[in-house]
Design a protein that fits this description.
This protein has 201 residues and is an alpha/beta fold. It has one domain (3-196): Isochorismatase-like (Rossmann fold), CATH 3.40.50.850. The chain is built from seven helices and six strands, in the order βαααβαβαβαβαβ. The protein has helices at 12-15, 20-23, 31-47, 68-73, 118-124, 137-150, 167-179; strands at 3-8, 52-57, 103-107, 129-135, 154-163, 184-186. A six-stranded parallel sheet has the order 3-2-1-4-5-6. Strand 5 (154-163), helix 7 and strand 6 (184-186) form a beta-alpha-beta unit. The chain is globular and about 45 Å long. 46% of the residues are buried.
Length: 201
């Protein structure tokens, strides 16, 4: 049994006040606090020798990989080059200390497993248990947790290391993942330790 921490889409575009989504009026409630607690999670994982995998939701210049349905939801993101590959907006927020030496999986869909190297990477690391945090709770985090469950990973969600557009949307996402049994729910603030991972039923 081996555990990894998966940090979903904690990028400047989503989480930094100068990022593209906040500038478009789509800031996430509690993003600063979620990032700070996620930084603690990353620190604890590294101290415990647990691999950390970051995902980034981004698009190539020209956005041919965005697709028509996501483009319908983008709300002006293309016009400001939001989440464009190679830009500051697409980078992981600095507070998490992600470097070129870290494991980073890029994606163009909500589900971090879809059309990416995430699953073979985790299998190569012999991971059976995933601790997940990130943004947006009820969108990319929930989509990824559901996909992980369907691939037989045992998932623990660090709920206080996640954020959504509103606190209520965050709560709904957590409730769905917990009550449907897709993930056990823990919090960094309550002293979660990586030696105690793999708590989901």
């Amino acid at each position: 049994m081996s555990t990894a921490l998966l940090v979903v889409d904690m990028q400047n575009g989503f989480c930094h006040p100068d990022g593209s989504l906040p500038k478009l009026g789509r800031a996430l409630a509690g993003a600063d606090a979620a990032v700070a607690r996620a930084a603690t999670a990353v620190e604890r994982a590294r101290a415990a020798g647990v691999p950390v995998v970051f995902t980034r939701h981004l698009y190539r210049p020209g956005r041919a990989d965005e697709g028509p349905r996501l483009a319908e939801l983008s709300g002006g993101l293309a016009e400001v080059r939001g989440l464009e590959s190679g830009t500051w907006d697409a980078d992981v927020v600095g507070e998490l200390g992600c470097t070129a030496a870290d494991l980073v999986v890029d994606k163009a869909r909500f589900d971090a497993f879809l059309w990416t190297s995430l699953d073979p990477l985790l299998r190569g690391l012999a991971v059976t248990d995933l601790v997940v945090c990130g943004v947006i709770t009820n969108v990319c985090v929930e989509s990824t947790v559901r996909a992980a469950f369907m691939r037989d990973y045992r998932v623990t969600l660090l709920a206080d290391c996640c954020a959504a557009k509103t606190e209520r949307q965050h709560e709904i996402g957590v409730e769905m993942m917990r009550d449907l049994g897709f993930a056990g729910v823990e919090s960094i603030g309550s002293g979660f330790a990586f030696g105690a991972a793999a708590v989901a039923a």
